[in-house]
Amino acid sequence: MTADELIIATCLKAGKIMVENGSEISRVDDTMMRIAQNAGVISANTYVTITGVMMSIQGRNATQIMAINKRTIDLEKVAQVNQLSREFAASAIDLPTLHQRLNTLDAASRSFPLWLQLVGAALVSGPLMIMFRQEIVNTWPTVVIGTLGYLVFYLLNRYLKIKFLSELVAALIIGFGAEWAVQIGWGTNVNDIIIGSLMPLVPGVPLTNAVRDTLAGNFVSGPARGVEALISAAALGFGIAVVITLS
Amino acid sequence: MNIIGQLILAYVAVLGFGLIINIPHQALNLAGWIGTLTWGSYLIVQAFDGGVVFGSLIGSVGIGVLSSMAARYKKMPAIIFNIPSLVSFVPGSQAYQMVRNFALGNYRQAVGFTLQLVMITGAIALGFLLAELLNRLIAFCTLRWRLAHPDR
User: What is the pLDDT of residue A111?
Assistant: First the structure.
């Protein structure tokens, strides 16, 4: 690999990891340019969208594209790329080491285990239900059904790999679970239980990134993320609407 | 007591969402505090009858400014702090009531909730814009201050 190729490969790898794991576009752009500048390239061009990253070095025969097919949410990886880029800028590591570290990071699986995510889902659903509805009677059903809904979403998303379908099924499970909890007398209010249980599935990252990308002037990626958030919200809404219509 | 309870719940909820989207462990506590502080400012607006929309605007401005400060302090991307702290401001209740009323055929109420949803979401987006403006202003002022007092 020549020096130019290594620079481009490193920048593209960093960009790919960041987009795949839920960073906003302007930060990806910034990080790639910083790595290129610290590697000694002054006039690099990057073009980042949420489905692919491109980079070229002006005046030299070096341009490459990296496609991005899957997108998950793992902000720890984004922070780690940021950290590696800072270390490279401070000359603590050299370019081949950076490239190798990025490859290791890309291959690593999620560092937060499933049970911790389930604890997170439980912590989100119960407290938010109390905050929104100002009542504590339905807390335990909300916590249990919210955790169950997130578990269903996680497992389906892992094996089916269709995010919107997983959200739809999770919403169905949450809706029927809430109806069931009220029917056996465990909870008292279906609406409150559903509102709380849905909160862990809210598309917070796409929504926030859609706003930030659009405001930063990335009119390709911002609206695209907005559509992603909208379809997720619609999938959750359809699931709940089916339950409400049936019961 | 009720207000203190709400603040504790806001902290817990932000922590939970941080666990779901896997933010670094070192950032969890700070993100929780940002969520607590901004929910406190929302509650203050509510206490003066400011309404949900204005409360969300103030909250999201606070989230934007505080996250950027936290990002500079911890040397991490700002989204690590502002996505989890935003979770208490998500209009989940209104979104659910909109879907429910559409499904039941109560279109008049459903449209009312849709408008509320659009207003709140718009307020949050506007809040981020204002926060960006404030962040630039703060950065500019610190730069000028550093240039004027190079010895500190």
Answer: 61
Sites in chain A below the pLDDT cut of 50: none
Alpha-carbon separation of residue B32 from A204, B11, B61, B96, B142 (angstroms): 16, 5, 16, 25, 26
From A61's Cα to the closest Cα of chain B, the distance in A is 33
Asked whether the beta carbons of residue A74 and residue B13 sit closer than 8 angstroms, the reply is no
Q: Taking the domains of chain B in order of start, what are their residue ranges?
A: 2-90+127-148
On whether any CB of chain A is under 8 Å from the CB of B144, the answer is no
**Residue A167 has what pLDDT?**
93
Distance from CA of B124 to the nearest CA of A (A): 9
Taking CB atoms and an 8 Å limit, are A195 and B93 in contact across chains? Answer: yes
Vertex A237: Cα angle to A234 and A238 (nearest 5): 85
Segments making up each domain of chain A, as ranges: 3-107, 114-246
Closest to B78 (Cα-Cα) out of B69, B87, B86 = B69
| Model ipTM value | 0.87
Q: Say what the pLDDT of residue B152 is.
A: 63
State pLDDT tens for residues A9-27.
999 999 999 999 888 898 8
Q: Does B24 touch chain A (CB under 8 A)?
A: yes
Closest-CA distance, B7 to chain A, in angstroms, reads 9
What CA–CA distance (Å, rounded) separates A70 from B83?
Answer: 21
Distance CA A125, CA B13 (A): 8
Averaged over successive runs of 10 residues, the pLDDT of chain B (152 residues) comes to 86 92 90 94 91 92 94 89 90 89 91 93 91 92 88 68
pLDDT at position A86: 92
With contact defined as beta carbons under 8 Å apart, do A68 and A51 qualify?
Answer: yes
